[in-house]
Amino acid sequence: MLRHRVLCLAISVCISVAASAQLGKIPVAVTVAFAKQYVAAQQVSYKDNLSEYSVQFMLDSNKMIAYYNSKGVWKGSEKDIAFEELSTEVKDGLAKSKYADWKVSGATVLYLSEKAGGGEQYRVKVVKGDIQKKYLYFNRMGRLVRDAITL
């Protein structure tokens, strides 16, 4: 019975989202893929980013963003977290990196699609002074896999 209710809810969300998606030119494939992947999502909003589509939503009181291509293929998702929620391995990786003396200004869990390597990565935003800002990407073991300049 519960499974039937969840399926009915997912179908009604797809229908209502698909109807509004036509106005915003969000492909139905995106709305259907999202509804199947995140059945319990709340406060859902879609955005056309030209080369991809993003979906902002709440899941279990967490603000998240999922990314899809125009065919509804999931590209990845992200969730902002507090630095304190990062694993000891990631915190140690930062402490041992050349950015150890930079100030942390945010942390995000990245859920990667199979095409992007699968699994999770952790993005830590660090700043030094008023001008230097970087995103640092760590794997689960706390190894810094890349860095990127940010605005």
Features of this protein?
disordered N terminus, 2 domains, Nuclear Transport Factor 2, Chain: A, 27% helix, alpha+beta, elongated, 151 residues, 8-stranded antiparallel β-sheet
For the largest sheet, list the strands in their spatial order.
Answer: 1-2-3-4-5-6-7-8
What oligomeric assembly is this protein in?
single chain
Mean pLDDT across the residues is 87
Reading off the top of the CATH hierarchy, the class of the largest domain is best stated as Alpha Beta
Bin the strand percentage: 35-45%
Report the total helices: 3
String of helices and strands: HHEEEEHEEEE
What coarse outline follows from CA principal-axis ratios?
elongated
- Count of strand segments: 8
- What helical percentage do the residues reach? 25-40%
- State the end-to-end CA separation: 50 Å
Task: Please explain how this structure is put together.
- The chain has 151 residues and is α+β, with helices and mostly antiparallel strands.
- It folds into two domains: 2-75, Roll (Nuclear Transport Factor 2, Chain: A), CATH 3.10.450; 82-149, Roll (Nuclear Transport Factor 2, Chain: A), CATH 3.10.450.
- Helices cover 27% and strands 40% of the residues.
- It is built from three helices and eight strands.
- It has an eight-stranded antiparallel beta sheet, with helices on one face.
- A hairpin with a 4-residue loop joins strand 1 (42-48) and strand 2 (53-59).
- Helix 1 (2-24) packs antiparallel against helix 2 (28-37).
- The longest helix is centred in the N-terminal third of the chain and has 23 residues, at 2-24.
- The N and C termini lie far apart (50 Å).
